[in-house]
Amino acid sequence: MSDLDARINEHFAGFVVRKDLVKAVKGNAIVPTYVLEYLLGQYCATDDEASIATGIETVKEILRKHYVHRSEAGLIQSTIKEKGRYKVIDQISVSLNEKTDSYEATFDNLGIKKVAVDSGTIKAHPKLLVTGVWCIADVQYEFSEDARISPWILETIKPIQIAKVDYEGYREARANFGTDDWIDLLMQSIGFNPEAFGRRAKLLQLMRLIPFVERNYNIIELGPKGTGKSHIYSEFSPHGQLISGGEVTIPKLFVNNSNGRIGLVGYWDVVAFDEFAGREKTANKALVDIMKNYMANKTFSRGVNPMGAEASFAFVGNTDHNVPFMLKNSDLFEALPPQFHDSAFIDRLHAYLPGWEIDVIRGEMFTKGYGFIVDYLAEILRHLRQEDFSHRPDQHFKISEKISTRDRDAIYKTMSGLLKLIFPNGGETAEDVEELLRLAMESRKRVKDQLARIDSTYPEVDFHYLGTDGTKRRVTTVEEEEYPQFYHLKPALDPKEQEHSETSAGAGEATSVAEGEASTSGPSSEAGRPVKSEAKPLLEEGHHVFTEDRKGISYDRLFGPYIEGASKIIVTDPYVRYFYQIRNMMEFVEMVIRRKSPEDQVSVHLVTGPDDGNVGKQRELLDSIVDACVGSGVEFTWAFDGTGTAHARDIVTDTGWKIVLDRGLDIFQAPIKKDGFSLSDRLQEHRIIKGFYVTYLRAEQG
Q1: Domain at 652, CATH number
Q2: Which entry of 68, 211, 305, 553 is 20 to 30 Å from 534 by CA?
C-alpha cells in the first residue's frame, strides 16, 4: 500500500474502497459503479486483505442472488411467487395510474409492471416518478382472482445511496492532505491512476465534477471518441442523470403541461446530454428557447407561471475534425446541431472543456489504489452545492473590469466549483488560486473567442487579471498558443482579408512576453524538420511560457535555430536518469545531427546527476548514445556533476547563446507503455508536454 493509500484509510476509514474491486465483483451485472461501490462500501471498506476477500465474496453472492438479469427475469418471478417475498436489485420507476388513483412501479430488468406502491414511499423518494432509480427492494406476490388487481406488491424499497454523511468530518480530514495528494485522492476516487496524468490533465478530469458541486452550472465537452466524456455522468453519482441528446423533450426535461409535473431539472442535480453533437441532428426550437432561458435565469415557464430549478447542464459529444481543421474552416462548436449552433445558446455556457486534450481511456489508466466510495463523495458534493466560494480569489487577484458580467459570472462559478473540490476547508495559497483562476478564465475564453468567430456582434475580449502588485497577467487558451495562425481567423471574411489576417497572425507570433503574459512564440520548423531557407530566422532573447497538455512542440522548434552553427554544445541537466529521459537526450543529439552540415564536427557534452537507484543502467544507456554517434559528425560525451549539487538546467553554445529551461530536456509527459505503434512515440510534435518555460539569453550577459 502506498503512503497516500495508507493515509486515505487512516483519515477516511469506512468511506473508501479499493477501486480495482469494482471489476472483481461486477461480472456480467450491468449496473452503475455507484451501485457496486455502495455494496463494496458495506463489506469491503477496509485495508485488511482477509476482510476484503471475504467482502468480495459476499458482494458477489448478493449480486448473484438478487441482481436481476433480463435473461433470468422469469426465474426470479417464479422465485418470488414460490417464496411469497424476495429481495431484488433493479432499476425501478413509478407512475400514477389515474384510473385507479394508485401508484404503480415498473421493474426494468425484472420485467414486471403495475406493482402496487404506497403513497408514503413516493413522498420519501419522489425521483421514482421522474426516471428509473437503482434500488434494493422487497417484492411480494399475492394472487387475486380479480384481474384488475396486480399480484405484485412493493413491500420495502431503498434507493442505493449512503444515508448520512459527516460533512464537517470531511472538511477536517482534508487538512491532513497536501494539495497534490488531495487531487490524487480525487483522481483515484473517480477511478484513475494519478501517475498516468499530468497536473493539467488531472484538473481537466476534475472539471467534469463541477456540475455536481455547483448549482445551475453549464459546461460543454467536445472531443474525440473514447475519452470517457459521459462516464462521470452515468456511473459516478445517484444525483446525476445521463440522457441521449436526441431523446429529450420539454415535458421530460422541464414540465408536463397536462399534469403540471416537473421534469428532470426539478429532481436531479445534474442533467447530462450524451451524444449531443451531430450536425445532422435536429432539435425542437421551443425546447432550445426554454433551455436558453433556463441556463440564463434558472427559471422556465409553464403558461404564465415561472418555475425555478437548480439542475446543472452538461453537454458531451464527439467532434468530427481535429482542432486546427476546426479553427481554420469553422469553429470549435462546429459539431453541434444547427439549432444549438446559436450564439445565444453558446453564450450561456460557463465553460468549454477541451476534450481533445484528454487521452483515450486505456486499461493502464485505471487505479488500483483507494478512493472515496463514489456515493459518499457524491453526497459531499451535493452538500457543497449550498455554499458559494466564488469570491474567495478576490483577496489575491482582480479580474479585468473590461470583462463582461456574464463572462465574469462564468469564471466565478468555475472557480467556486474548483475550490469546493480541492479546498473545501479553505487554506489555498495565491499560487493555488492563480492556477485555478487561469483554468477558469481559459475555459470561458474558449467560449467567448468562438462566439466572436460565429457572430460578428460579439467583440473580442482581452481576458486578463491583475495581481496584488497591479501587474497585468493575460490568459490564453492552449489552442491559441498551439495554432496562432488559425485561432483568430474569421471564417466569414473575404479571402483577401483572410490572407491578410493570416499574415498578421504569423507576424505577431514572435512577440516577446511582457507584464507577466504567457507566450509560446519562438523558433519553429514544420514537423520537426530543419528550416531550409536562405533567410535565417532572427534570433532574439526572450522568456516564453508553454502551457501543459498542448502538443506541437519539438526540440527542433525550441532549440534548432539557436544551436545551428555551434561546434560545441554543453547540456546541463541533473535529471537525465530514467530511460525516457535518456531517450530525450538521444533525440536532442539526433536534432543536432539533422541541423548541422554533413562536413561539420560538433561536440555535445552532457552534465547530469547519477541515478542512485540504478546507476549501472544509466551509464549503459548514456554510453549507448556515445556509440550511436560514431561516424555521425557529432561527438557525444557525458559526465556526472562532480559536486552532486547541481540544479541548473541549461544549454550553452560556443556561438554565444544560453538557453535556460526550468525542466531541462524533460518537457514531455512520461509515455505510458503499450503494445503497437503510436505517433507520440515517434514524433515529438504529437506528444503532450508538461508546463515549462524557456529563456533565451546571450551567454555573455547570462
Answers
A1: 3.30.870.30
A2: 553
C-alpha cell at 189: 476516487
Tens of pLDDT along 347-398? 999 999 999 999 888 888 899 999 998 888 988 999 999 999 988 999 899 9
Residues of the chain with pLDDT under 50: 493-534, 701-702
**Overall domain count for the chain:** 4
Co-location of 111 and 238 in the same domain: no
437 and 337 in a common domain:
yes
DSSP strands (E only) in 536-666: 542-546, 568-572, 602-608, 634-640, 650-653, 657-661
What amino acid is encoded at 123 in this protein?
A: K
Rounded-to-integer distance, Cα 65 and Cα 686, Å: 49
Three-state secondary-structure class, residue 270? strand
Three cell numbers, residue 224: 474525440
* Nearest residue to 209 via CA among 350, 404, 418, 375: 418
Domain assignment of residue 536, yes or no: no
Closest CA relative to residue 2, chosen from 271, 193, 241, 269: 193
Mean pLDDT estimate for the chain: 86
Rounded Cα–Cα distance for residues 193 and 204 (Å) = 14
Looking at the structure, tell me whether residues 25 and 80 fall in a common domain: no
Q: Which structural domain, as residue segments, surrounds residue 382? A: 211-492
Q: What does the block give as the cell for 550?
A: 498542448
- Return d(Cα 512, Cα 535) in angstroms, integer: 21
